[in-house]
Amino acid sequence: MPFAELPSPRTFVTGGAAALLMIGLTLAGALDTAELGMHGKLLDVISSGRPLVIGVDLLFPEPSPRGPHDDAELGAAVARAGNVVLGAARADTVEYIGNRAVEKAASTMPLPVIRRGAAAVAPINMYPDIDAHLRRAPSHVVLGETREMAFDWVLHRLAAAHGLTVSPRPSVDEIIINFRGGPRTFPWVPYHRVVGGEVRPETFRDAIVLIGPTSVVLHDVFPTPFASTGTMSGVEIHANVIDTLVRGDRIRPVPRAVSLVGMAIAALGAAGLAARLRVARAFVAVALVWVALAAGTVAAFIVVHVWFQAIGITLALVLGYGATVVDNYVREQRERRRLSQFFSPDVLNEIVRHRADVSLGSRRRMVTVLFSDIRGFTSISEKVEPEQVAEMLREYLTEMTEVVFRHGGTVDKYIGDCIMALYNAPFEDADHAAKAILTGLEFQERTLAVSARWEAKLGVQIRNGVGINTGEAVVGTMGSRQRLEYTAIGDTVNLAARLESLTKDYGTGIIVSEATAEAVRGRFFTRELGEVSVKGKALPVKIFAVLPSDIRKYPRATLTTAATLVAVDGGRTCVVRTCDVGQGGVSVTGLPDDWPAGLALEIRCDGATLPKTLAAQGTIIWRRGDAAGIAFTTVEPDGEPVIAEYVSGHKPR
């Protein structure tokens, strides 16, 4: 039978360190019947090729059923070779003493007749990690009462003694195996081909030869990191261990201290990214960092055989990112709750969305400031119980806050029954003056609705005044270290508060400054009220009343009586007949043709129908034929109660 063509000894195994000989499935029966003489023939063939050392990954603890001569034949072959390392195994047992389990160390050794001529007998045990994969090879194993050098380490030592150039034996208790690949990475020769004379003995010259089972039916297979699709035979694992020892390229784990520092840096880095970036961007950034670290880990593993615990770095990144995201969310919700008192939901969402671009720090900017409070609140408080006052105030401020938010304003603060609002802060809004006036007009409407409800409950009426001013102010977060709030300070704010206090004196609902009136010229019905002196200002300040665009929005009642109108611009006088009246104004018929819309006038209704005579100032805001609508700009003292009493006592139109 011709010899099989096999690789040369120097290329037989990766790097030429060892020739690997495996027992194939075809000889399972021979193993089962323990034909030890067949193993002796195998050793004779191999040793005739003059290998460096022969490692036998088999156990021979029981006598051959063929008789003592079979055992002796194998022992003689071992002795003739002179360089055979036989395998032994630690086999601990558990005995029960009463109800207690007691572990006893035991070992499985080759028969004395077989091991007597061996170069060494060494334990073949290796122990899997927690995931059941074999990654490590111990340098020593306890057999019985003694600590013995492990099988692969003995082979490494003997190969060096026989002239093989090897790396120094590492002074460690175990090594992490540098696997060369998955199953069948190392060349192998079937058992029967060697015994059958198909392999030249020269094949094994100056090689380390390993003999062991490779078939899965022999149950000597284990999962390894490179056997993702299955398992690797024990003899192949020993070949990887020996090759690692010979080359001196064992996998070195990163020291625990370095690993912990790396994890800390990874966690802090992920936390920093999550703190500075939005959630999605931070996630992408952390993912890219993880990819870079993973690539670096793989490169370090391949190039310098350093093993970073990737799972530790991954957990550090996840925990750093996750903890910061959760912390940011909790902080954001807390900040939302705090800021929701001042900003509308839309503005609040913008602040959160553009938190890096929105400055809440103090700076000078153009704003429109609105002040509004309830007229006669002190007297109302004296008439009803404190709990009822609190309930009424809560309802009123809730309604007014909704109005501020709807028109894009920011609630600066509540001062008792007073509400202060800012426009054009914190975001730019070119139409801030108009939105403040729209807020004031809706304040008037909503206050009437709230008043109607509380008049029915407690018999009290609510009216409010609104002061609005436009100008520069310092806006931002201000306060102490213990408490900050978003507010505005400056003369612009002071004047707005002063204008609000003047509404009662002038009998009008809304008073704005000249700056605000100029900013909305032509968009609202306004009437100049004159000039007032303001504390802190050298020159008088012009003030204007703002009229509702539609007096029909206010509750009104039919009023048929004579009214005298006096034009402010020239003293012209006419007598008209009223149709209805409300808090916002009065509608009339019989108006002369030369009295145009926009004309400012004084109006006086006699007391024949009303509880008493009503005197007010107003502006014609519409006319059709001889009919016209006159919006009140100011109402003389006691005028508002007269109108309210009349309207509430008559069926609204």
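That was protein one. Protein two is written in the same sequence-then-structure order:
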Amino acid sequence: MKRFLGYAATFIVLTTSVLIAQTPTKKVVQIPSTNDPFKISRGSTFSASIPTTAGNSAKTNTLSGKAALVRDLGDALDLIEHFHIDGNGTKTPELIKTSITAMLRVLDPHSSYFDSSEYSDLLSDQHSEYFGIGATIANFQKRGRIDTYVTSTFPDSPAFRANLRFGDKIVEVNGTDVSGKSSLYVRNQVRGKKGTIVRMKIQRADSRKFETIVIRRNRVAQPSISDAYVLKPGIGYIDLSSGFNYTTEEELNLALKELRRQRVSSVILDLRDNPGGILEQAVRVAEKFLPSGKTIATQRGRYVIDNRVWKSRNKNPETIPLIVLVNDESASASEVVAGALQDYDRAVIVGEKTFGKGLVQSVIDLPHGSGLTLTTAKYYTPSGRLIQRDYSAGNLYDYYQHNEKYGGVRSKIATKTIGGRTVFAGDGIMPDVLANNDDLTENQIDLLDPIFHFSSDLAAGRIIGFEHYRIYRQRDISKRIGANDFPVKERLLKAFEKHINLESRPKRIKTFTRTDARFVANRIRYNLISAAYGNTIAKQVLIESDSQIEKAILTLPQARNMAKSAARRPIKTSFK
């Protein structure tokens, strides 16, 4: 259910991008020396307008290795700029970026080059902030046209104060027409330097009138823990799906303190879709539950200086029973947390096998504001398990899609947890309790767009007989939703079906199954609560019907037994 939002993708933080590597047909083009005889080979086309420089071969002989390759790259760029039909110089930065990226792809899937704009985004993400307006936006289609819509605003953000609301369509940004553009493109137009002005032309969801609003960009907090609340009596839930940033430890301490105040006796820590982030903060999260002296992670690099060991310094660790939820998008630092807690039998890991990213990227500044994340080491769990999947064969598409030929088969290298359970190395973290994700059906994917537009009309008070669902503006409050918050019953579902028949029913959808009806009701309610309270509060709707959450709750007795055993285990117990 964590991927429930993925089909209406929101772009608050730029995350992992996937590049599809293709192997081109090798083609060698030689520019002859001026002293060579002129020859035309079969299939040749040629122009006599490109001059060559005599003595190139002699010059090449004076250079060797890296210097010659760098010279060749410079010469190739010069030739492209001067003679390629489209190479008027405007594409030079793109060519250079592609060249560096191709170099890194030969090495591993995770070393990356960032131009100055991307590098600035990377650094701001790590500091849990960016300069923008604080709105969540997404693409939705209507009558064959895709546009960008506001789905919620952050509390006390510039967008909230400007009264941007659920369903407002973004038409222009600073005079640039963004109709039909991706929400990522729109996001990049909206973001900018702190204190600068962005002018947005929007079409209001309620009146359908066009307005131009002026918003001053400001810092917008991006907490790593988006929500923490009592899921059921005695069961706390912490959503740590956004990655680890500089404020994660502090956020976790506050969340646990508040849950303790509400008398929870067990906790579900949700690391699904957590892409990683700052390792030191992930170590602090694991340390919260592990006693002083216990190894949390080991880093082994090419040089001794890159080798590190992180150990807990916590003399009073939490003893509360713990479930850690993971899926195939839990990566890197989140796998360090899951691996450490699994190795020490301190938490039950529930969900799907994790991504398997155990490579350490060092963030390196380059001149002129660009930067690299360069792989310099590998992560190992306390029992000595390598987290990283094999990436020696296949291509990047296979790697990111978890195809079996690209490290998808579980490693045969076995180790033991502190309690003697068998676990495996070199292929991510295998959960103790498997629980599959709720993938959407084709029908449900097709329904997402009409559900959004119906919800927008409903929140605007345009659905006859349901005017009481109208939401005048998003409220800036923290709330635990209940059954009486925007209930969706049979009569409203019939209104939805009538609505899409008038608007144009998706071609593949002939009738609703009972499962589809539950999905539609859940999604409409999610959208209405997003409109009223924001996306963070609305995610509680999805959690209520999440099968992996249900599995985690059923596994709590096992977590309680594990917590008791961990509390009784001598501190000096070591791995066998």
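The chain has 17 helices and 21 strands. Keep this in mind for the problem set.
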